[in-house]
Amino acid sequence: MDTMRERFITVTSHLLDEDPRLALVLAEISMDGFRPAQRAHPERVINVGIREQLLVGVGGGLALTGLRPVMHTFASFLVERPFEQVKLDFGHQGTGGVLVSASASYDWPAGGFTHMSPGDVALLDTLDGWTIHVPGHPDEAEALLRHAYADGDEKVYVRLSQLSNGAPRPVDGAGFLTVREGSDGVVLAVGPTLDDVLAATEGMDVTVLYATTVRPFDSAALRAAVGTGPADVVLVEPYLAGTSTAAANDALADLPHRVLGLGVGRAELRRYGTVEEHTAAHGLDPRSLRERITAFRQSGARR
């Protein structure tokens, strides 16, 4: 199976042939995969080198000319380093474009903390009007990329990862999916966390929701899953823990509820390790998730 990043290269290359409005801006990352597209469309496939602020600035300029710019590099260099350009060149200027990241929270541990971005979604959450997609499988990545490219002049972030669930789910770029139904709590799994969440909650009487579009937050789906309350809700996100806790609390503001936000911890792990070791260290492997979810549910039962 190809990776999400490989699928991004394939899909975007094909769409550059089909859509004369689409433009791609790179900062060296993935350039080798896009060389055929650059030869075919030199005016719409631009490599600015390792200049990430310029990457976003050029994308913003292309948007002002009426093109649909796609900007791509590692998440830490796409959202965190050029955040001022993202804020001003798209938000302040009132333009639209698509940010497509790679490497996510800790997908390349050998790159160290400079190449990790667990806070990217939380950072974009400080800005208005961004749609955020977090696919959990290459097929979902393709569907969400196509949706993002065709999404008029909207501001969209597509967060790609090396991690993947075993099978794709039908995604529409909008609401949450119900994967398993239960009557004693809700667990919301985001993107590539779904398989581990399903393994962790096996045998539990909980509803499992699946989110690949996290902004806008699907408050209606969460409320429907919770019912009339009281309810325990666990959020399992592949980025900074607690990123969506406020959104979940707002969705359930008039109902008795508790929310536990699980995700990547704030403490920097100062060993390279493997992706699997980082997942376990952040308590996001199936065994750790089961222990944490069980403890949360039991603490509620003692109230």
Automatic annotation (TrEMBL):
It holds the Pfam family Transket_pyr. It comes from the Bacteria. Residues 2-167 form the Transketolase-like pyrimidine-binding domain. Gene3D superfamilies: 3.40.50.920, 3.40.50.970. InterPro entries: PDH/Transketolase, THDP-binding, Transketo_C/PFOR_II, Transketolase-like_Pyr-bd, Transketolase_C. This is Transketolase. It comes from Streptomyces antimicrobicus. The lineage of its organism: Bacteria, Bacillati, Actinomycetota, Actinomycetes, Kitasatosporales.
